[in-house]
Amino acid sequence: MNAETLWVLGLLALCIAAFVANRPRMDAVALLALLALVLSGILDAGEALAGFSEPSVILIAAFFVIGESLVRTGIALRVGDWLVDKAGKSETRVLVLLMLAVAVLGSVMSSTGVVAIFIPVTLSVAGRIGVSRSRLMMPLCFAGLISGMLTLVGTPPNLIVNAELGRAGYEGFAFFDFTPMGLVVLLCGVGYMLAMQGRIGGRKEGEGAPEKRRRLMDLAREYRILDRVHRMRIEPDSPLVGQTLGEVELRKRYLANIVSIERQRQFRRVMLRPSANRELLAGDIIIIDFTCAPISVEAFRAELGLSESGFRDDLSRELGMAELLLPPESFLIGKSVLDLQLRSQRGISVMGIRRKGEPLGENLLREKLKLGDTLLIAGTWKSIRQLRSQSHDFLLLNLPAEFDEAAPALRQAPFALIGLAATIALMISGLVPNVIAALLGCMLMGAFRCIDMESAYRSIHWQSLILIVGMLPFALALQKTGGIDFFVAALLDLVGDAGPRVVMAALFLLTAVIGLFISNTATAVLMAPIGIGVAQELGVSPYPFAMTVALAASAAFMTPISSPVNTLVLGPGNYRFVDFLRVGVPFTLIVLLICIALLPLLFPL
């Protein structure tokens, strides 16, 4: 072992120690290591910076954007709805369904992309069923890795090993040759995660956390509007049908304020702005705020041909509320709510007023506003967002927690599905490289207005990308200095005379260990010819050895840098380096035992 090899291995050991200590940040450690490799002369600048043009890095960034598009159009939350609907409040059922869904989808497209898409879904589901995000993020990660074991195209290492078989003169694997092994590993993975419930790590989310944000229901209670707001359907015989809001004069006649109008359009329901020239149709659903109405709600419904309609659970994803504060220079001071014309000009309605901390209960629409008043306003989240840039006459206070769950591009959901389907189809077909398919998917999301450029850049988790880019040069450094060749030769000398199963176990362990430090694709490139060569020397079938390499390359469960999939969930799951070691090492050994037990049966030696 030469001095250069010792230097690279020593630097790698320092990085691992820093990762375990979590000081400094992992992305900073990766960049420092990159600089050290260049300054020591092991790599030149071009070699060290090659990770910035690595297709897998671009692929990850592209799927962050696609994943954010699914969130902004509400699709990610719909998947969460399905999971919660099927699983209820059961964490066990959520975990099982989540792992199965991710594994199946990841078997025909990038596992990294699938995990990136499901991260916001998982965060939403965790919050809605009331469990720590760390209890679901690790199962999500493991399912993404296992998905690469289910089909020939599940992950690049499978294709690399398959190509190496062809170069050695053997017939390659069929599309579903990996499936039996992958299904066994998946079932064991689900069982393992169920057994580990409550013991999956992650820093406690309550430590140092800010005060819990108020929700819409909290605002409604504080302003005492719960009994005033009703959701009603316009029946076909209603006198409101065919009239505009300006013509019916509900505010003047009944002191009833129309907050929103819902209308069915083809296969979806849309939220319409309640402007004065908006015509009302039969079947429309209106949300009405009765501000001291002179007649009872029952008499109001009977007179206007309306029927009560319950509030939808998902209404808060389209319709929201927020508080406005009047600053000293506001021109709104001294004017009444009716004078403001907020509904006609900005698409929002005033639901309540608080003065000196107490809500006002009567004549809200005609109440003259005073300095320091806070107004509870309601409208679509889009209208509320637009108020953020208009702070001269009022200040938009802290938004409720539902604001983060709202889908600003809800109407573009069908187009987002088209973009996602096109991306997956291109990946499955192989017409273009995966990274090009992902970039085309990003362009489609932008063209369909599922996401804007500012949101696209914000959606990319740059810390994860920098960590990956900084660690990629180690693969080349280990190859150039002979470090990998040294350990491979030593291991073959150690077990070369043992039985085939022992050699397979050694091959699996060596592949898994190398995969701790370099990408699973590079690991497969290095280990595939070695595995096939060992089988030829032993005079046995190369197929179990080749598949051992492929499965071990995908079994990157042990550290957060073993795979981009692990790196993606590191931050959202609030994990530390040691959490992956504690959970990942035992499961890697389980996968090893499965390979040794089943591969010789599926592919006789």
From TrEMBL:
<feature type="transmembrane region" description="Helical">
    <location>
        <begin position="540"/>
        <end position="559"/>
    </location>
</feature>
<feature type="transmembrane region" description="Helical">
    <location>
        <begin position="580"/>
        <end position="603"/>
    </location>
</feature>
<dbReference type="GO" id="GO:0005886">
    <property type="term" value="C:plasma membrane"/>
</dbReference>
<keyword id="KW-0813">Transport</keyword>
<feature type="transmembrane region" description="Helical">
    <location>
        <begin position="30"/>
        <end position="50"/>
    </location>
</feature>
<feature type="domain" description="RCK C-terminal">
    <location>
        <begin position="309"/>
        <end position="393"/>
    </location>
</feature>
<keyword id="KW-0472">Membrane</keyword>
<dbReference type="Pfam" id="PF03600">
    <property type="entry name" value="CitMHS"/>
</dbReference>
<dbReference type="GO" id="GO:0008324">
    <property type="term" value="F:monoatomic cation transmembrane transporter activity"/>
</dbReference>
<dbReference type="InterPro" id="IPR051679">
    <property type="entry name" value="DASS-Related_Transporters"/>
</dbReference>
<dbReference type="InterPro" id="IPR036721">
    <property type="entry name" value="RCK_C_sf"/>
</dbReference>
<feature type="domain" description="RCK C-terminal">
    <location>
        <begin position="217"/>
        <end position="306"/>
    </location>
</feature>
<dbReference type="GO" id="GO:0006813">
    <property type="term" value="P:potassium ion transport"/>
</dbReference>
<feature type="transmembrane region" description="Helical">
    <location>
        <begin position="502"/>
        <end position="528"/>
    </location>
</feature>
<keyword id="KW-0677">Repeat</keyword>
<dbReference type="InterPro" id="IPR004680">
    <property type="entry name" value="Cit_transptr-like_dom"/>
</dbReference>
<dbReference type="InterPro" id="IPR031312">
    <property type="entry name" value="Na/sul_symport_CS"/>
</dbReference>
<feature type="transmembrane region" description="Helical">
    <location>
        <begin position="173"/>
        <end position="195"/>
    </location>
</feature>
<feature type="transmembrane region" description="Helical">
    <location>
        <begin position="415"/>
        <end position="448"/>
    </location>
</feature>
<feature type="transmembrane region" description="Helical">
    <location>
        <begin position="135"/>
        <end position="153"/>
    </location>
</feature>
<keyword id="KW-0812">Transmembrane</keyword>
<protein>
    <submittedName>
        <fullName>SLC13 family permease</fullName>
    </submittedName>
</protein>
<dbReference type="Pfam" id="PF02080">
    <property type="entry name" value="TrkA_C"/>
</dbReference>
<feature type="transmembrane region" description="Helical">
    <location>
        <begin position="57"/>
        <end position="75"/>
    </location>
</feature>
<keyword id="KW-1133">Transmembrane helix</keyword>
<feature type="transmembrane region" description="Helical">
    <location>
        <begin position="95"/>
        <end position="123"/>
    </location>
</feature>
<dbReference type="InterPro" id="IPR006037">
    <property type="entry name" value="RCK_C"/>
</dbReference>
<feature type="transmembrane region" description="Helical">
    <location>
        <begin position="460"/>
        <end position="478"/>
    </location>
</feature>
